[in-house]
Fold each of these.
Amino acid sequence: MQEEIGLLQELERIGAEAQAGLDQVADAEALATWRQTYLGKKGALTAALRSLGRLPAEERPIVGQRANQLRETLEASLEARQAQLDQQALTAQLAASAIDVRLPGRPQSLGAMHITSQTLRRIYEIFGGLGFQVFPSREVEDDVTNFQMLNLPPDHPARDMWSTFYLTDPGLLLRTHTSPGQIHAMRHYHPEPLRVILPGKCYRFEQVTSRHEFMFYQVEGLAIARNITMADLKGVLLSFARQMFGPERRLRFRPSYFPFTEPSAEADMDCALCGGKGCRVCKGTGWLEILGCGMVHPQVLRNGGYDPEIYSGFAFGMGPERIAMLKHGIDDIRLFYSADLRFLQQFA
Ligand code: DAH
């Protein structure tokens, strides 16, 4: 009887110790050790069962039954703990390999319109309002259209006004100005009247400086109809200058020379910065040169298909970078195409 009670107490002790130990088990290895300690062949429970033989036969079933219960309880606890540990391991693994959706995204820099494009659009808008259509024209020209049709035969000294990139294909070149577009536009529209602007890139084989680029834009203007006079030219250009630079602006026309216009002029605008008093920007003169212009030469009209006895026209050519420089106080044309974001972002 004494033995039986002692053995039952021993089983209780083993059970309590095992359950408490199981709570401390933190991984699979510790669990295997725990299993050996309490359920293994050399474990505590097996040892207790071995001493069953010392009990009288009638007491054995009670203790044996209790021992079997305990084994089942411990095995169930083991299984539950095992499941718990598996779940913990899975959770940890998922957490370690998870994509952290809270990470900030890679910043996508926003594009913006280039200052030249902005200026061109404003120019289109103003001339659109004056009835001028945009007429696109090619950048690779032939010598005939770029020069000869504009009264610049080979070896004409005025060709020195345009340092030229000639292509290896004989007779082809990168247009030095948008003026050859006049020929294309006239041949497209004749014998109807026309009012067009011809925007695009031009190329010059020149030393690049703060005032000269080897590639730049021009916007050419051309109007042809009956009875067009220089007053029309002046009116259109004054309207442009005032819409672009402010309603106070004044223009003056200085005689000049271009082989494709007669008479030819250079248009100056009064300096908006100093109001004409003279400053650093206008170099003390109070005036800023903004474009070349004139009345279309009779031979150029003929080359475009128009009869100069019936039709007359005016033409002009301006540099939109120069317009942008005057408008925004930019002092170096090289900034436009040097792809320097510090410059470009100021106009974004
Ligand atoms: N093509 C000239 C140049 O590049 C600019 C020019 C002057 C255009 C007078 C014209 C004009 O249409 O009439 O220097």
Amino acid sequence: MATNAEFVVSRLASVNPATGEVLGELDSAGPAEVGTAVFRARAAQADWNSLGIRNRIRILRRFQQILLARKNDVARRITQEAGKPCVEALLTEVLVVLDAARFLIANSFEILREQKLPHGNLAMKSKAGRILHEPFGVVGIISPWNYPFSIPATEALAALVAGNSVVLKPSELTPLIAMELQNLLREAGVPDDVFQVLPGDGATGAAIIASEINKLIFTGSVATGRRIAQNAAARLLPVVLELGGKDPMIVLEDADVDVASSGAVWGAFMNAGQTCLSVERCYVHQSLYNAFLDACCEKARKLRVGNGMDPGTEIGPMIHERQVRIVELHLEDAKQRGATVLVGGSRLREFGPTFFAPTVLANVDHGMRIMQEETFGPVLPIMPFRDDAEAVRLANDSDFGLAASVWTKDRAHGDRVARRINAGTVMVNDAVSCFSISEAPHGGVKSSGLGRTHGRWGLEEMVRVKYLDSDRIPRMKKIWWFGYGGGFAAEMESFVDLLYSHSLGERIKAVVNSAGALWRRKL
Ligand code: NAD
């Protein structure tokens, strides 16, 4: 971890991945800036919390309306910095945030309000219990580049409405759109110190984890997530980890080949395959296999690759050459082990160094990296299966467990298979779009992470649950206090029978035998 003395302030350059143009430069925040930001965030949090949830919801509503008015401008900025087609920026980023705001405006008061907690234990009947939801204080958010607006914004809105202040470290590849989020929130009325962006790379992220934040919401790769979990464990910092995926798609014997192949092509290639919920492996019933391969190849060939700013573009550039290299390594490994490239398989250098052709692969198996590791590029490997049991076994044969999809014309059949898949989300007859269902929890099992974002579960991650208990008979000493005396054990034995015996006779006897405890002299 970088210390103050070691940290060298560096300049971050935000680069348009389609053109290589430098869009802007920012200073990285070092440990000193992180420390100051967290100090300010903590000082501002008390007033932000005292504002009350109704007033914070009002600010959220203003944010939503400002974002709605600027939707196209924000989408264009996302495209410039992350490369995805403008329409995807609008639908998978801006719309997702507008809808997350809608969900929080409508539901956060109800979810976070104080709640009575009735007791079932007769011995505790004199007590009134309540559940309070208290903000953690300062929530740190560390986010990736692939959804540079919707991921930090949905997490930040939930943290803010719950009464926390937020420090956000966006990916070093996409800092400008995070600054835009900061502008939108401030314009809506979020005080400057309540939401602060700290640009930087992993060293800035490490400084945030070492700082006095009270909770961390991390989204990124499994490798970074593991490192973060270790650092967080050393100081018992609570974390949510939204990590990578290797999502399987299962096309059952009774699926519609045309619908499922269109779903596969979109699920594998949207955002150039750089989506945690991307279709990364596809399993097709052997009776449909050839027809499905043909349909996917035909559809992949028709996709229009280009600069995301052009309205007709369907596949933009990948974010960085580093990411392209991973795709090339996985393809090389697969080909060496017998895979066949049916479409694509290489860069499209005529567009630029980060453009990669949508690629369909056949003859793949689980001995290949492309079926085991996250590829995070526009590649669709397709493998046949014999029956449902084999499809489920293949889908579950993975270290990851973020999401999965099952495709069938028979919804009941789809549900049965979906229940057997080990993942945080399983969709029947769609993929990826679960991220835009604001009510639905998002998160994984196995190496795909811990905890949830989105929906009521994501909001509950932003608060500590406090139990408040008040005894209604303050002048009475409790039966279980000291002054036990000789007969007390027998009385309590009867009292336990009174509480839990299924026999009416036993319980009546127990009332008589335990009653003496009420008049017992307590210390
Ligand atoms: P990454 O792990 O390289 O970086 C994520 C963030 O962590 C960046 O902001 C980075 O600067 C920061 N970071 C790096 N090292 C750090 C350290 N030591 N301490 C603290 N912070 C550090 O991931 P990426 O390449 O930006 O994003 C792609 C990955 O994110 C993929 O694996 C993808 O599946 C995953 N992802 C998951 C979800 C989800 O919701 N589960 C969503 C989007 C992306």
Amino acid sequence: MVFIVGLTGGIGSGKTAVSDRFAKLGIKVVDADVCARVVVEPGRPALAQIVDHFGPEVLQADGSLDRARLRQIVFANEAERKWLESLLHPLIFEEMWSQLQSANSPYAILVSPLLVEAGQNAICQRILVVDVPEDVQLARTMARDANSAEQVKAMMASQASRDARLAKADDVIVNDSDLLMLKQRVDEIHHQYLALAEISKQ
Ligand code: ATP
């Protein structure tokens, strides 16, 4: 059974920067966002069920899911959102689980913006939170995505609060300095995880 570290953090906190470094260290990284896209690819049963339920207007011309359109529909309708979540959450979970079980590194990272909110922390032995002060989070996300401060603030407000996330953390990486410091911090925590994964086998 692979030792699973759940990695989470708010928008623009540095999850990708952190998980890229773990991957460079040879650790298997499973991305919940990627899994969420895989389960609705053309040919997957979930896509047919979504089209049956919402109609062909949620498809793009090439037959793939129009994710923006679907988001609009469920954003405006709580019951539809619940319907969609109850269809997709178990499938996403299965996809994550099978990717994690195929890991042949000493431990695996599950990176997810909604790790705690979606209950994915249940399969993790350890929770690692990337934490940044909100002003840094705002500035980095705006620089990366060319979004307005209002748009980024709205996204931040829709996620778990910084305190709520930190309350679930076993380990925290404070990403308020440069990328070199971040790399060093990941390398340090990697050694702790190697040791913990080894202990968990005994
Ligand atoms: P999202 O939830 O939106 O996917 P994320 O948590 O994966 O975001 P990243 O994309 O890793 O966050 O980081 C956000 C931006 O900030 C990126 O442009 C990244 O290069 C930059 N960044 C991350 N950490 C640092 C740092 N320590 N110093 C400078 N820039 C950083």
Amino acid sequence: MRKIKIFDTTLRDGEQSPGCSMNLAEKLKVAACLEKLRVDVIEAGFAIASPGDFASVEAISKAVKDCTVASLARATKGDIDCAWSAVRQAADPRIHLFIATSPLHMEYKLKMKPEDVLTQITEMTAYAKQYVSNVEFSAEDATRSDPEFLAQAVRNAIAAGATVVNIPDTVGYTTPAEMRALIEYLVREVPETAGIELSLHCHNDLGMATANSLAGILGGATQVECTVNGLGERSGNTSMEEVVMALRTRADIYECETRIETTQIYRASKTVYDIIGQTAPLNKPIVGKNAFLHESGIHQHGVLANKKTYEILTPESVGIRVENLVLGKHSGKHAFEAHLKELGYELTQDELLRCFTEFKALCDKKKTINDADLEALVSHNTRAEETEERYKLDWFAVHTTNFTTATATICLRRGEETLQAVSLGDGPIDAAFQAVDDIVKPVEHAFATFTIQSISEGKDTLGDINLKLSALGRTFRGHGLSTDIIEASILAYVEAINRLCAYQNKQEG
Ligand code: KIV
Ligand code: ZN
């Protein structure tokens, strides 16, 4: 079995995509998940991009012990200096530098002659190498580069000390056969690649990122760059969960293995989706709600006779529990804690207490509480929050019919103060949001998304609201959870407004 390294770029390429930005506490939470998952490399960010990025790369470098931590850098001295300052305290730091090698990028973006790009590769790889032995070089837009030129770029990088060379399909343009042929060509033409890691970084613009990565592995690549849930620029990157489970399920073909702890996959996926305020598409491979459901009679019959008829991998292998223990209002704190442990949650005493109080409150509204409810409750009550809660919902009342204008009264608390407003609106949610606006008077903003999902089956299910507001050139997320969807909506809106106000205050100094 060949060993394939998993390089996770959820915190860099993933976080770079619209609506996926995370605060420091959230990034640390994801990094902890990635370490449990046992990825080989965590790309923690692009240190020079902003002071916030620098701080998170540095904090992740200090926190993570069992993975290499990398920072991205353009092939310039300033970027490399900054990347090194951010990762230098990591147990195993890596500088990841890149420059484009395609004619299009060199002429129009870099405005550099090809020979100057080659010189820059040599000089900047050597420059990074002064700081650290673990240096990765990426030839951006490699799949649209002239293969001979690309081979020379790879030779230069290796000669200057690169220990990893990455071949990105930056715009998701290549195909599996082409990717395999390109890697085979590089392995053949640049025998020095035998002494280093040869890496892939595929974008998903044509839906082929996973297929291209797997084909590149067959061609001889030894590292795959990917993200949890396939997050990333535009249509995303290779999904970590897909590539890992494909390698494992079809080990007969790939003859490769990773060190990933696959039972942590579902937890990592859920953590990332919760943080960015999204849920997996129902049919998403491995982590979607339908991935292991068998609805049609023929399939159910087959699965009952023998699971293997329609299941090529088990839900347990990716950390999805099938038997669903039900808790209720008579369940005590010990049963609650023990069950959370079984689900893989390790909570602090404070978090446990908060979750248990919420659990008891939920028991008064909902007869039975299953794993999905518990996961939602724990995730909501253990959020990596940085923004202080300026405004808090105290109480609300709405009146709505299908023949009159809806009215909402809202009472918010700010410290010791209570603030009330009454407003009319086009439906109860509009009226309630309007009343919040009348109290807070936030800057002009628009709704980027507003989604409502049920956590489990049954009419008394928890309503899970995720919304995103756009204002001041950014998006602000809010999340609310309640058996009452109007309450959940107000909670989500107040949270997003708190974030918007905090950002505005920071900007105004
Ligand atoms: O897509 C890409 O080319 C990248 C590189 C910076 C590795 O993200
Ligand atoms: Zn990329």
